[in-house]
Amino acid sequence: MYECKIAEKLVELRTSKGVTQEDVAQSLSISNKTVSKWENGVSTPDLSMLVELSKYYDVTTDLLLGLSEKKNQSTEEEVLSLFEGLDRRESVLKAFETVKSLVPAMYKTVSKYNDNVYDKENIFPSEISHFYRSNVSLHEFFEFVASSENVNIAVMMLRNKANFAWMNDPDKQKEIVRIFKFLSDKDTLSVLYYIHSTNCSESFTANYLSNHTGIKEERVSEILDEFCSFGTCHWVMAHLAEGEVKIYECDGDGIILSLISLAFERMCGRPSYEYNFNGRCKMIGGK
Predict the structure, then answer these.
(1) Residue 83 in contact with residue 94, Cβ under 8 Å?
(2) Neighbouring C-beta atoms of residue 17, cutoff 10 Å
């Protein structure tokens, strides 16, 4: 009974790993015939070999013996297990490692069912030391990762059903231009810099920011009011002895920081990549 379960499990694990009986034999320093006998149920591995097999397939000996099965984990549980026991720095590094592994993992699966795709090895070479700054461009998606003293950012963009038609919509163009026009002003960047710094409280006045940025209070008020119209900044009117004063509140805006960080990387970052696969990022008008 157990012999049969072990044989079936060994075949299942080897197939899932995508290796041959010869590969297994070489890794364990045994003969092909021995592996074949195990998988056919003619013989069973001894205790020492069970341990080696469990290490090779990265499973427990109980699973090899058919005494337990892998529990189906949710995506959240699988991700949480990756970060278990890590400190903050290790968690950040693991996050970057996870992001850069998503695309090759997806392509490895897709290529099993569709020959009309890029070869995974061409997109992400198996031998590479690190991804300090990497870029992958394809019709289906774009991925950019940068990790430096200035910027830690990972971006993944997938082709959408609308084929970016909104980029040619006059109303949408007007709104998109508005935010880029807002960010194109150097006074705005100085105000946003201070708002996002740990020195700035979550509640503040235009006068407070003016004193810390050197920008005239009237100009700061204009910037804050426009920021409130599309960002995560809000205001309430406070009735003080000296009159009414706008109190602004902002915990920070990650999307705004991301836009600025991407602009910084494009214009001020390193021009070279540790890895760059440019298969063209022509996503508009695709299927």
Answers:
(1) yes
(2) 13
pLDDT digits over 44-79, tens only? 888 888 888 888 888 888 787 776 655 556 777 778
Evaluate whether 14 touches 21 at the Cβ level (below 8 Å). Answer: yes
- Helix orientation angle between 88-113 and 75-83, rounded to the nearest 10 degrees: 140
- Where are the strands (E) in 141-217, listed by range? 141-147, 152-158, 203-204
- What SS3 state is found at 41? coil
CA distance 142 to 152: 17
pLDDT tens-place string over residues 244-266: 999 999 999 999 999 999 999 99
Tokens of residue 36, six digits: 């074949």
Domains annotated on the chain, with CATH: 2-64 (1.10.260.40), 85-166+271-287 (no CATH), 185-255 (1.10.10.10)
What separation in angstroms does the CA of 123 have from each of 157, 177, 276?
16, 34, 9
Token look-up 């082709």 returns 159
